[in-house]
Amino acid sequence: MNLHPAQPGAFAGVHAIERAYHAYKAGEISETGVMVHGVPDEGVDAGPVLAWEPVAIYPNDTLADLEARVHAVENGEDLAEYTMIAFGGAAPLHAARLCEKLGVSRCLVPPGAGVGSAIGFLRAPFSFEANRSVFMRLSAFDPARVQALFAEMEGAATRFVRSCDATAPILADYKVYMRYAGQGWEIPVPLTREQADKADPATFLTRFETEYQALFGRTVKGVEIEVTVWSVNAHTTTETVARAAPVTAGTAPAQTGQRQLFDAAKSAVATTSVHERADFPPGARVNGPAVITEEETTIIRPASRDAIALADGCIEIFIKGDRA
User: Fold this and answer.
1) Does residue 296 contact residue 89 with C-beta atoms inside 8 Å?
2) What is the Cα–Cα distance from 53 to 297, expressed in whole angstroms?
3) Engineering a disulfide at 252: which of 2, 89, 190, 286 sits with its beta carbon 3.0 to 4.6 angstroms away?
């Protein structure tokens, strides 16, 4: 069987999504699709069709928009079930429109979205990962050497983290990178502390085959297995995140002005209200189209989306009518 990003009988071979996109722009098709078909003895993407699913193309789509929608269908994903998180100075400007185009029903804009990376860096736990490149085949596994290697790496990583925080508990995660002999790449294989301390080749084999099976759906029998990289990550504990309390929708804060806003979905310019994010208490709700401004960025909501302030300070953007 083969999975091909096109409707039956259309755009066989390579670059099918790009060719469908240009065909739509030329007025030749109104939609594309994804199909599963049998592989014939001759021809390309010409075997019997087992199943297929249409994929919409919209007038304002870019090629990247269409590719994202097609790949979601290929993987059996419904993007409407996902939540987009917009961070960075420019993301809140475009996130709601991107949700429209991809069919994502919900978007969150966290506080300080324009400097989200800096906030995340400051709130992240201290950590240091020690790695060693030591080639070892399971057939020549040396438990004493492995135990000494893990102990040395854990000591080095822990000392670095302790220099960042003198009192916090420090945890350690263990990992090795393994492959079948002859492969040019490895897969990460996590280990528990007990598995790292005992350093048993049978355990390493079981862990590798479990991870390989999960990734590729099979294992390879009769081939030597190799470890190429050993890793210990020492870190302080992660802050516990509490679930935000529910909010009751209230009224919109007073607008601070108006602005002309181009709504790409409607291909029209509309006069929209402008609001300051600092004026949004939990539950404050604004119907789109509207603009919410703050120092780091601006949130643009098209006519198809409304927004509400959540208890944790996030602005939730959702499809009009999805909330009472």
Assistant:
1) yes
2) 38
3) 286
